[in-house]
Amino acid sequence: MDSDTLLARITDYVNRPNPYPLYAELREAGPVVRQADGSYLVGTYHEIAALLHDPRMSVDPRIRGETTHKPPFLRLDDPEHHRLRTLAMRPFGPPHSPGRVDAMRGEIDQLTEELMEPFQAGRQIDIVDDFAYPLPVTVICRLLGVPREDEPLFREWSDAIVASADVRPEEDSTERDEAGDQARSEMGRYLVDLAEKRRGKPSDDLLSAFANEPDPDRRLTQEELAETAVLLLIAGHETTVNLITNGVLTLLRQPEHLDQLRREPDLLPRAVEELLRYEPPVHMRERIPLADIDVAGTTIPEGTSVVLALASGNRDPKRFHEPDRFDPTRPDNQHLGFGSGIHLCYGAPLARIEAQAALGALIPHLGTARLVQDPPPYRQNAMLRGPRHLPIQL
Amino acid sequence: MAGDLRDGRIVIIGASLAGLRAAEALREEGFTGSLTVVGDEPHPPYDRPPLSKQVLLGLVAADSTGLPMRRDPDAEWRLGVRATGLDPLGKRVLLADGESVPYDRVLITTGTRARPWPKAEEAALDGVFTLRTREDAGGLAERLAAGPRRVLVIGGGFTGSEIASACRERGLDVTVAERGPAPLVGALGGTLSKLAAVMQRNHGVDLRTGVTVTTLRGDGSGRFSGAELSDGSRVEADVCVVALGAVRNVEWLADSGLAAGPRGIACDAGCRAFNMYGIVTDDIFVAGDVSRFPHPLFGYQMLSLEHWGNAVEQAEVAAHNMVNPGPLRRPHLALPTFWSTQFGLNIKSVGVPTFSDHVVIAQGSLEARRLAMVYGYQGRVTAAVTVDMAKSLDYYRHLIETAAPFPPPPGAADRAIAADIPVPSDVPDPKGLSHGPTVALTGYLPDRRLTVVQPRG
Amino acid sequence: MRTVVDLTHCQGYAQCVFLAPKVFQLHGEEGLLYAPAVPDDQAERVRQAAAACPVQAILLGEEVSVDGR
């Protein structure tokens, strides 16, 4: 088949359970592969890593006229990206709040235990709905300061926003974009209202910190606060679910590694990193060059959409020895699971702690578990790829 | 042949970072023979960069920076004994305790020591320090903790600036005396040295440039009490740190016939030492701060680097080449890279900033204290320095490695307004500075054929 | 346990600071300081930090033992 339909095939829902052979085809045809619609697809590790560090690669959707309103920092370029990300980081991580995430470990362990209470031997459970989804949602709600019981409300908004950000080259996106914009503005208003309620009455959460920043130079505008809070709530709730679910799926498919981790629990942090390489929650990111750029001999014109297939880079044999093997002891594992460069995932440390807690608690109970359905049903989204359900028999 | 090289006797002289990494790498490369590591300090290998940072800040103890092993190198450690000579014909290393150690191949990683204050009597005053060893750092940290009236730092290079930064962070008054026009000018050139000067002054450093310290004064009972400067002024202080750069530990090789001098021991790109006639040896290898080696990206000039990363990478190349026959040997072509943390800023460099004629600020700005400065030489990118922008460094590394045109291509989202306007890099003659430059470019390699990689034309 | 960070490769992602804030700390926006001698009660966190480092710059190990062969 032609390589200029690769993106269409990768994003085709029938290939969601296993896009990896297509990634191999992409690397073979690459490093840079022009698509029929004029966009470019990059699937080799070194080229992706270089582009993620290239200051000429923009993430701003306004460049291509896709929107006119100012996006959250994830889709802003420096220096504005740096300013807003640094402000958003103040209550969350170093240098100003270095112990914040570490201090959440006990709470996360406790939540994990509570969720696992009904997991009796012999029962059938859905890893997604019963475990991998509720855990990060509860954690991000507490961190941000959003009532957990509002979950059905923001889940709907979140679905619409994530769908609008998906890559679907074969489809007219107008309707999705409109639905996404509306959801974004409603969700933003909801979060700004929550923040306003905490002004002068701070509780220990990020919305309170944003609303009560004493230094006017460091205060987010209402629009910035809305965009930032929407981003954090969605990112905290759409990605970690895939990481945990993919972890269970991978270990149940490869019982020898399940055994290995049961015998050597110290390997868990490295196993989570390997999971981020082998089955990452985020498969693709888009960039737009601000000038004509040369990548491995191909000139990509200014303003063209460039899709970086991070999950393909993670399986590049030029970078990783035996890339299609899941190996929790893999040395030198500089995966692209959280991206790289200035946009490296803001919530990465939280995702790591949640995945380690969740898998660490679950692994001892998976000894006799089996997959009820393999492959499981997947979510529509190709960029944020993961199972919609993962039924297992304990 | 290869089998023989993996056996026999290897001696490493110098038990610091390069010596340790070489010992580990030899075992990783399959060396099964006997391995001896000689070190003049009594301690197992320890890390030095923290000594001027977290140790002086009082965050960690001076004796806590012991280096972790990647693997046990299964070596005999002869610590606390100085090597006094090398007999290349008899193939023995002579030691200060009168013993000698035979070798089949030897690796020299003796590094550098702090350049002392030239007047021994003044240097002996209580309260006068240099900073190189664990003991130096421990003694200095103790004095800083005691709350001296003022600290005088002589020399505004990286070490002197980091010491001044630590003093200010501890709330101590500090004076920096630098012979050049600004701190760091020898390593980074004119533009960034101006930023360094502003940072020092903004943080309350009493920075004196264009002056030298002429005399260190005692209080009559052998304690340092102040110094006189070439402009006639006087600085009252309780502590003085002499940060005048480093001296390479080569004196012990005076009779060895090797090409060893003040700038280090000359070696080829495969880390093999040259003798004084420019003939390359095949059983004497050199790595780390004590070496000088040719680099094709910088006109094949001989680089001598005092960089942590160079010690690691060169030690690994040397170890590889010590146990592999000619055609399998590797050149040491890693790009020079270093970092410094001072006055709240993280400064990182790749390439050779002194190998330049012009610079541009490619991203960010001096005002924001966050920028990427790119150095060019005759229309080619040769170095980059970032200030709080380390994530950009890999991009510029790639430009240097591919000999990309200077100024670098436009298009960065956060490009500086003046990104298209190169200004002279303004790297002064190192002779005019009181701190040694971090990168020295000296001489020219006689034997080009030893280097294999050519940058794209 | 001892640790050393290859600050030549460190890009200031600070993942280690999040995961083991008693051992690693940021100095300014991206300069990293750390305690080379890891307290026993921090070893597990430091192992997590080393695994998580996006540029794999954190080395862990025992201090060199020089008791001879």
Task: Walk me through this protein's architecture.
The complex is a heterotrimer of chains A (394), B (457) and C (69). Chain A has 394 residues and is of the alpha+beta class. Chain A has a single domain (3-393), classed as Cytochrome P450 (Cytochrome p450, Orthogonal Bundle), CATH 1.10.630. Chain A is built from 16 helices and ten strands. Chain A has helices spanning 6-11, 20-29, 45-52, 80-89, 105-116, 127-132, 134-144, 151-165, 174-198, 206-211, 222-238, 240-253, 255-263, 268-278, 310-313, 348-362, and strands spanning 32-34, 40-42, 57-58, 124-126, 284-289, 293-295, 298-300, 306-309, 370-371, 391-393. In chain A, helix 5 (105-116) runs antiparallel to helix 7, helix 5 (105-116) packs across helix 16 (348-362) and helix 14 (268-278) crosses helix 16. The longest helix of chain A is centred in the middle third of the chain and has 25 residues, at 174-198. Chain B is α/β, with parallel strands linked by helices and 457 residues long. Chain B has three domains: 2-47 and 66-113 and 247-328, 3-Layer(bba) Sandwich (FAD/NAD(P)-binding domain); 116-244, FAD/NAD(P)-binding domain, CATH 3.50.50.60; 355-426, Enolase-like, domain 1, CATH 3.30.390. Chain B has nine helices and 30 strands. Chain B has helices at residues 2-5, 17-28, 120-123, 134-145, 158-169, 185-188, 190-202, 308-322, 393-401; strands at 9-13, 34-39, 76-79, 83-87, 92-95, 100-102, 105-108, 112-114, 128-129, 150-154, 173-178, 206-209, 213-218, 224-229, 234-236, 239-242, 246-248, 260-261, 264-266, 272-274, 280-286, 291-295, 301-305, 337-342, 345-351, 358-365, 370-377, 380-387, 423-424, 439-442. In chain B, helix 2 (17-28) packs parallel to helix 8 (308-322). Chain B is globular and about 60 Å long. The two termini of chain B are 37 Å apart. With 69 residues, chain C is of the alpha+beta class. The longest helix of chain C has 10 residues, at 43-52. Chain C is globular, with a radius of gyration of 12 Å. Classes of the chains: A alpha+beta (394), B alpha/beta (457), C alpha+beta (69). Chains in contact: A-B, A-C, B-C. Chain B binds chain C through residues 20, 44-45, 47, 49-50, 53-54, 57, 59-61, 64-70, 72, 74-77, 79, 307-309, 312, 337-339, 341, 344-346, 370, 388, 390-391, 393-394, and chain C through 1-4, 6-13, 27-37, 59-66, 68-69.
